[in-house]
Give the backbone structure.
Amino acid sequence: MSERARRTADSSDAVERGDDGVRVFHADDPEAGLATDVVLAVAEISGSDPTELPPLSDVIDADALDRLFGPDHSGDGSDRVSFNYHGYRVTVCRDGEIMLQRRDGTDP
């Protein structure tokens, strides 16, 4: 596992948010790719090895996600996109916030 992946997977930046079950993670290096941070966050919350998760590209164009929220794309702080991945509702925000909420009735 790379040092960046280890830092993200071991991050204490994940916080529980209220009774809605949402966990929040923060991308630690937006230039390296937000799609990678999404996979690492889902791996951490689900207790999975990131290399054993299904490809993110099965549910969303990972390159487009990186371009949309990359440092070279203009937008305002309210930009966000949501999708389902590995039993979680994932919401990615312009500021690098990644919110994960377990979907009812699904097994990761």
